[in-house]
Structures are given as structure tokens and as C-alpha cells.
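Students often ask why inverse folding is considered easier than folding. One informal answer: many sequences map to the same fold, so there is more than one right answer. In these notes we will look at a single instance of the problem. The structure comes first.
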């Protein structure tokens, strides 16, 4: 290879030198041509100058003859010579190239024009001005000729000098060109001779190279024999060119075949697993013969009782003219692989069965837990609308909180199941981010108050009024992050910031930030914090509880909506979770205005009948109570068969259908209603199942909507309004906030609106209980303070805290919390007296405000 390289290098160098010689010769010829052109140009200028000089002599003679004889012939000859002189001067002007030439010739033309003008005057007039004689005038005329000739002499001398230089330059260029050609030719000849010498050496090494090729071919055969696959090479005629050892071992008594056709005529092959003879046109060999590489994995070879499954492939080999030269076929025994594949299929089936068992287990667990949980949450919601003592209300809130926490764990497990299956559905409905966040703030305030944490929510008013998206998932994300912040923060504040990060066309990027001053997250845990079942430490799990699923679900929900989440944290200082989610901007008119749905005629609503198909007695009672609160009449059917019987006897406006029931479940009942009774009444599935595909299954069998148990009253409001297309009693907008003109005291009745479902009468009753019980408790507190019973003061403060939170009097709550702390620590009496005094003053302002609110909610007569 090195010898070839040097040969090519020397040949290339010789050719390059010849090219350079040619280029240099071309450049020299160009210089010679340019120089010769200048020489020719100089000769032309000299010739034109001589012609002008001759014409000057002619016109001077014509003037002398005319002056001496007055013969008109001289005038005619003068005019002819003058014209030719002008033409010659113009020609000379055209040949002027340099600035100096142009200047001299311009001067020459001016003198010629002046001389000819004077000559014409001498011919036309009899005498010259000022009485000058003709001979004197002629002398002036001839003096100008001398000046012109002197100028012509200068031009000729300059051109003669340039001519000498250019002739010398031409000779020098010719000599340089000749010398370079001689030297270049000699160098090229030397290089080419060297290349010839090296070529001779290369030819001499061919013999040793051929020997080496033979050795390489032998080694290649040995290598192919060592390959653990059968390899056979066929020529363009289909005859065997080479077979390796594995091929001969595989074919056994058929190993001495001469061609592909001979082999497979005597040894047929079959297609696995059908066992039919393998079609010739589908075999890789025949596809390779047509120029196409191919591979199959279902070729079965049968020799005696032995069956071998082969992975067969074939590749065509072409020569330089792209003609088929060889076909290389290979065969790999994959019988063991097939057995492994069968075992994998068995394992896959077992895994699928296990997944099905897991899903069934989750379904049953969901139903068994959600059914009683539905009753607990439903009845606590109804119980909250009845008059309760503050202590009863506190206990009821504890029950409600515990049941909702249990529901959260169940929902987390079910959400994980849906996310794993890729079946988590996202709504795209109009909603207000600002209203949603304000509602979340109301939900979080009691928990923050209990831990004496400041909850600060900041909203960017540049946010679009309405966006399209899934408000339920956004609520889930915010509640999870904010609840964690409250749970892991012992003192300080929680900041929730919602801002508009960027608007691109009809899309807005909303940035949600939840910042706390809690325990923080260690740096080594931070990269894994969004993993499933991952918490900061085992101490965190013991101290604060939790399943470790929340952040994993939040991360999945954010990612599935096209957003992203980040976290920054310092142990001991707190954490900052930042979420960015894109939403489509919607028209404000697309958001439902709940305030426009207030029911005005309960008599009309009583005409709407609902059939509740439910087997659980507690759920029956709960559904009946909730529907009664909504203004509807309800009937119960314990199972699907009884529901069908009632539907044959009477028509209903809506059916709430449980799924799991004895005798006939909700799916089969719905099929009977649609396909046998042919009734198109709206059917809403009401089930404790919330697994993957549950909603889709309900809709597939003919149901119209789906509500998961335990349901919230607001969820049922929405579903009923959607299916019946009527105005139902709706929530009063959460804007009931009253301020005292005397100070900063205010109440916010949003929580009451939520728990009463917007029922003004119930709200008035609850406020009446507050007005009746609170003065009594305040009187007891004052009496206990007079007796220096700080412990009793703390107990009364604890009893008053919950009702005050319920009416949204946030300014008083910290004082009650402080009194509880001082009572637990047996604190300073003077401090307690000052706080109690402040509480009494604030409550004196608060009670009239509550009375005013109660009167507003009283029904008008």
C-alpha cells in the first residue's frame, strides 16, 4: 500500500508540474499578447502623429499659395486637408489610453482647432484685424504650426520610449517562459521515471501478495468453519461454492449436495408451526436471487425423527457491474429459542392473569371501602346542615376529615392504577382558575389555623377569566402540594402563588408555586422525591404519616397535561414546588354562571321523579335525603329486577344506578332498559368502582353519565342539571363577606355556603345557633378568668375556635389558639387577661355583624 501511495503521489506530482507549466506558459503568453498589443498601439500612435504632421504641411502650403496668388484652388484643398486633419486627430484621440496621452492629445486638438479657425479667417477676409498685413498674419499662423509640431515631437518621443520598454519586457517574458518550461519538464521527467521504478517494484511484489491471499483464504475458511451457524455460498448458477463445517454437520447425509435445487429436492423443508411445505418464492434464497436480502424464522428442517427450527437468511453479492455473483445463505438453530419464547408466553399469560387479579382486587376493595365511606361522608354532610353545638360540630368535622383522608388514600391507589394503564382521562371544560384557587384556600384555611400557620394566596389578575382544562386535576395538584406544605410545616407561613407566565396566541402558561417554611428535603433525596412510595426519611413517615404516592401522582398529572414540575428545598428552611401547565384560553361566556340557576319553584321540581337503584340501605337513605334537599321525589329499587318492574309500571325522569347489586347488576339492568323496554330515560351510574375503563364501560352499555361514590352534593347537582336540562338549586356564589365599618373585623361565609349547599334557611339556623351559644361561652370565659382558672379559659377558647372559623372570622382565631397554648403551659395570668380583653372587644363587634347576616338569610314572608 505504501508503494502504491508513492507511485500515485509521484505520478500526481508530475502531472501537477505539467499543469503548473501549462498555467505559467498561458500566463506568459497572455503577458506577451498584452505587450504586443501595446507595441502595436504605440506604432499606430506614431503613424497617426506622422500623418497629422504631413497634413499640417499641406494646409500651411495651401495658405501660402492663397496669400501669394489668391487662387481659389488653394481654399478647396485647404478645406479637404482640414477635414482629414480633424479625422486623423479624432483617430489619435481614440487611441489614447493613459492619462498623459489623453492630456497631450487634448492639447493637440485644441491647438489644431485654433489653427484651422485662424486659417479660415485668412482665407475669407482680405486682411487681418488691426491692419496687420497678410504675410504677418500668415507668420502667426505658421508659428502655431511650429507649436503643434513640437507637441507631436514630444508625443512621438514618449511613445518611442514606451516602445523600447515594452519590447524589452516582451523579450524578458519570453525568456522566462522558456526557462520555466525547460526546468518543469526536467522535473516531471525525473518524477515519472521514479514512478516507473516504483511500479516495477510493485509488480515484483505481486507474487508474494498472491501467496498471502491464498493464506488469507485458508484462514477465512477456518473462521467460517468456527462460526456457530450454517453458512453456504452459491454462485450465480445456484451451484455450491462453499459450505462450512456446521452446514455439513446439520445436513448429515445430505452434506454432499452440489446445488441448492439438488439439496431441497431430496430434503424438503416445512413452515412452522403449520407443517406445510415451505413455498419456494418465500424462501430467502430465491429472494436473494432476485437481488433482495431476506430473513425468516419459521423454517423447519426434518431429518429422520429430528426436527430443527431454523432462522434462515440470504444476502446477494454483486460484482462491479452489479451482476449477481454469489448468494450467501446462513442458518441458525433457534429450537432452544423457541422453547424460551414459549416459556415467555406462559410467563406473560401468568403476568396478565396476575394483573387481572390485581384489578379485580382493587375493584372489590374500591367497592367495599367506598360504599360505607359514601354513607359516612354523605350523612356527615347532611348532619352539618342541622343545628349543632360547637363541640358536636368539632367532632363531626373530625369524622368528616378522617373519612376524607381515607378516601384520599383510596383515590391515590386508584389513580396510580389508572396512570399505569394509561387510561386516566382528562376533561376539557371551561373553568375559572381564580375561583378554583379561592375555593381551595377556603378548604385549606382550617388546617392552617389549627397549626397557627399563615396562609397567603396571591393571584395574578392578568390570568384569563376562563380557560379550558380539567379543574378536578388542577384541584388535585394544588391540594396535594398545599396539604403537604401544611403537614410538614410547624411554624411560619404557606405561600401559594398563581401567575400568568406567558400567553402565546390562544394558549396561556399558568405557573403555580407552593412555598413553605417547613422541614425541607435533603439534597440526596431531592432527585427522587417524585418516585412512588418515596418520602424524605422513615422518621418523616412515622412523624407525619402519608403513603408516599401524592407527589408521584402530581408529577404524572402535570406531565400528562403537557406541563412540568420543579422543586427547590433546603433542610430546615422549607421547600418551593413550582408547576407550569398550559391551558387553552376560553371565552368568558363559556363558563357556567351558577348564580343563574337558582330554583324559584320547588313545586315544579317535586314533579320530577328519580328512581334510585341501590341495594345498600344506608346509601338508599342518603340518596333519598340528598335528592329531597334538591327538591326531587325519589323511589327506591333494591336491585335490577325490582327496577325493571317499577319501570314497567311507571315512568321516571332520571335513574341513579348502582353497579354491584344482587340478582341483577347495574350493567345488565341498563341493557334490559335499553334493549328490552326501549326506554331512553337518562341513567347515571353511581358506583364505588373507580378503576381503569369503568366510566367507558358504563357509557358503552347505554348509561348517560357516571358519578363515583362517595359523591359530593355539588357533583350530584351538576350531573342532575346536565341530564335533566332544568334549573336545580345551586350554590350561592362564594362572595358573602361582610366588613365592619368600625374596624378591620369581617366575616366570610363561604364555608357555610359549601356545607349547606347554598340553603339560606340552613345558614340562618346555623348563625342563630352561633348567636345563641357564643355569648354564653364568652360569659363563662369571663367568669373563669375572674376565678384565675386559666385551664378552663383554654377549654372555652377551644370550644369557640371552631364556630368562629366556620363563619370566617379569621382575625379572632389566633387569639383563641394563643389562649389554648397558655392554658396548656399554665401561662402568665396577666397575658391571659389582656388576650381575653381583646377577644371580648372583637366579639362585641362580631356579634352584630353575624346578626345582620342572619337576617339577610331569613326567608321573606
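Output (designed amino acids):
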Amino acid at each position: 500500500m505504501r508503494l502504491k501511495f508513492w507511485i500515485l503521489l509521484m505520478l500526481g506530482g508530475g502531472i501537477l508540474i505539467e499543469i503548473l507549466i501549462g498555467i505559467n506558459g498561458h500566463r506568459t503568453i497572455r503577458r506577451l499578447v498584452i505587450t504586443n498589443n501595446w507595441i502595436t498601439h504605440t506604432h499606430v500612435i506614431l503613424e497617426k502623429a506622422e500623418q497629422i504632421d504631413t497634413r499640417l504641411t499641406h494646409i500651411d502650403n495651401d495658405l501660402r499659395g492663397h496669400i501669394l496668388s489668391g487662387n481659389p484652388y488653394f481654399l478647396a484643398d485647404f478645406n479637404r486637408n482640414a477635414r482629414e486633419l480633424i479625422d486623423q486627430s479624432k483617430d489619435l484621440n481614440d487611441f489614447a489610453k493613459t492619462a498623459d496621452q489623453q492630456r497631450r492629445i487634448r492639447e493637440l486638438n485644441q491647438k489644431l482647432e485654433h489653427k484651422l479657425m485662424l486659417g479660415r479667417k485668412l482665407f475669407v477676409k482680405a486682411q487681418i484685424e488691426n491692419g496687420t498685413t497678410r504675410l504677418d498674419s500668415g507668420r502667426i499662423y505658421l508659428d502655431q504650426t511650429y507649436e503643434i509640431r513640437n507637441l507631436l515631437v514630444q508625443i512621438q518621443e514618449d511613445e518611442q520610449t514606451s516602445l523600447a520598454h515594452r519590447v524589452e519586457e516582451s523579450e524578458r517574458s519570453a525568456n522566462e517562459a522558456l526557462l520555466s518550461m525547460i526546468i518543469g519538464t526536467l522535473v516531471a521527467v525525473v518524477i515519472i521515471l521514479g514512478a516507473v521504478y516504483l511500479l516495477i517494484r510493485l509488480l515484483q511484489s505481486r507474487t508474494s501478495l498472491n501467496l498471502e491471499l491464498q493464506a488469507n483464504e485458508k484462514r477465512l475458511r477456518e473462521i467460517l468453519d468456527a462460526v456457530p451457524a450454517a453458512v453456504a455460498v452459491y454462485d450465480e448458477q445456484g451451484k455450491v461454492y462453499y459450505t462450512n463445517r456446521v452446514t455439513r454437520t446439520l445436513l448429515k447425509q445430505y452434506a454432499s449436495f452440489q446445488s441448492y435445487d439438488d439439496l431441497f429436492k431430496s430434503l424438503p423443508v416445512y413452515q412452522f408451526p403449520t407443517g406445510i411445505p415451505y413455498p419456494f418464492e418465500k424462501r430467502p434464497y430465491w429472494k436473494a436471487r432476485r437481488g433482495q436480502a431476506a430473513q425468516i424464522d419459521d423454517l423447519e428442517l426434518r431429518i429422520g425423527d429430528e426436527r430443527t427450527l431454523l432462522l434462515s437468511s440470504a444476502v446477494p453479492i454483486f460484482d462491479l457491474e452489479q451482476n449477481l455473483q454469489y448468494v450467501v445463505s446462513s442458518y441458525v438453530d433457534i429450537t432452544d429459542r423457541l422453547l424460551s419464547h414459549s416459556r415467555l408466553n406462559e410467563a406473560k399469560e401468568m403476568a396478565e392473569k396476575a394483573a387481572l387479579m390485581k384489578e379485580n382486587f382493587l375493584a372489590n376493595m374500591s367497592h367495599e371501602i367506598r360504599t360505607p365511606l359514601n354513607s359516612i361522608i354523605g350523612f356527615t354532610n347532611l348532619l352539618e346542615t342541622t343545628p349543632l353545638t360547637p363541640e358536636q360540630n368539632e367532632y363531626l368535622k373530625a369524622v368528616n376529615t378522617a373519612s376524607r383522608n381515607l378516601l384520599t388514600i383510596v383515590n391515590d391507589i386508584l389513580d396510580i392504577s389508572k396512570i399505569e394503564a394509561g387510561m386516566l382521562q382528562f376533561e376539557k371544560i371551561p373553568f375559572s382558575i381564580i375561583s378554583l384557587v379561592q375555593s381551595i384556600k377556603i378548604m385549606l384555611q382550617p388546617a392552617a389555623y389549627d397549626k397557627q400557620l399563615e396562609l397567603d394566596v396571591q393571584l395574578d389578575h392578568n390570568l384569563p377569566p376562563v380557560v379550558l382544562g380539567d379543574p378536578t386535576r388542577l384541584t388535585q395538584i394544588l391540594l396535594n402540594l398545599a396539604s403537604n406544605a401544611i403537614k410538614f410545616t410547624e411554624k411560619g407561613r404557606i405561600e401559594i402563588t398563581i401567575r400568568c407566565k406567558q400567553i402565546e396566541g390562544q394558549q396561556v402558561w399558568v405557573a403555580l408555586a407552593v412555598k413553605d417554611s417547613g422541614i425541607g428535603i435533603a439534597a440526596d433525596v431531592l432527585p427522587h422525591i417524585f418516585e412512588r412510595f418515596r418520602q424524605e426519611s422513615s422518621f418523616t413517615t412515622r412523624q407525619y404519616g402519608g403513603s408516599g404516592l401524592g407527589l408521584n401522582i402530581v408529577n404524572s398529572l402535570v406531565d400528562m397535561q403537557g406541563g412540568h414540575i420543579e422543586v427547590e428545598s433546603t433542610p430546615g428552611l422549607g421547600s418551593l414546588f413550582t408547576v407550569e401547565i398550559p391551558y387553552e384560553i376560553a371565552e368568558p361566556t363559556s363558563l357556567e354562571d351558577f348564580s343563574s340557576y337558582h330554583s324559584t319553584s320547588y313545586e315544579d321540581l317535586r314533579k320530577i321523579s328519580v328512581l334510585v337503584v341501590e341495594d345498600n340501605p344506608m346509601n338508599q337513605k342518603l340518596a333519598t335525603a340528598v335528592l329531597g334537599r334538591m327538591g326531587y321525589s325519589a323511589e327506591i329499587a333494591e336491585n335490577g329486577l325490582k327496577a325493571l318492574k317499577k319501570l314497567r309500571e311507571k315512568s321516571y325522569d332520571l335513574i341513579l344506578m348502582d353497579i354491584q347489586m344482587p340478582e341483577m347488576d347495574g350493567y345488565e339492568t341498563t341493557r334490559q332498559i335499553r334493549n328490552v323496554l326501549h326506554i331512553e330515560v337518562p341513567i347515571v351510574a353511581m358506583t364505588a368502582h373507580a378503576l381503569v375503563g369503568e366510566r367507558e364501560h358504563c357509557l358503552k352499555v347505554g348509561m348517560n353519565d357516571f358519578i363515583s361514590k362517595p359523591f359530593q352534593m355539588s357533583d350530584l347537582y351538576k350531573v342532575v342539571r346536565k341530564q335533566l336540562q332544568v334549573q336545580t338549586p345551586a350554590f350561592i356564589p362564594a362572595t358573602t363577606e361582610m366588613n365592619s365599618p368600625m374596624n378591620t373585623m369581617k366575616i366570610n361565609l363561604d364555608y357555610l355556603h359549601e356545607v349547606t349547599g347554598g340553603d339560606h334557611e340552613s345558614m340562618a339556623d346555623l348563625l342563630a345557633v352561633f348567636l345563641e351559644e357564643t355569648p354564653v361561652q364568652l360569659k363563662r370565659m369571663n367568669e373563669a378568668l375572674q376565678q384565675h382558672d386559666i385551664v378552663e379559659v383554654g377549654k372555652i377558647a377551644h370550644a369557640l375556635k371552631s364556630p368562629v372559623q366556620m363563619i370566617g372570622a379569621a382575625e379572632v382565631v389566633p387569639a383563641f389558639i394563643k389562649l389554648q397554648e397558655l392554658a396548656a403551659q399554665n401561662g402568665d395570668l396577666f397575658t391571659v387577661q389582656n388576650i381575653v380583653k381583646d377577644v371580648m372587644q372583637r366579639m362585641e363587634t362580631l356579634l352584630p355583624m353575624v346578626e345582620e347576616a342572619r337576617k339577610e338569610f331569613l326567608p321573606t314572608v
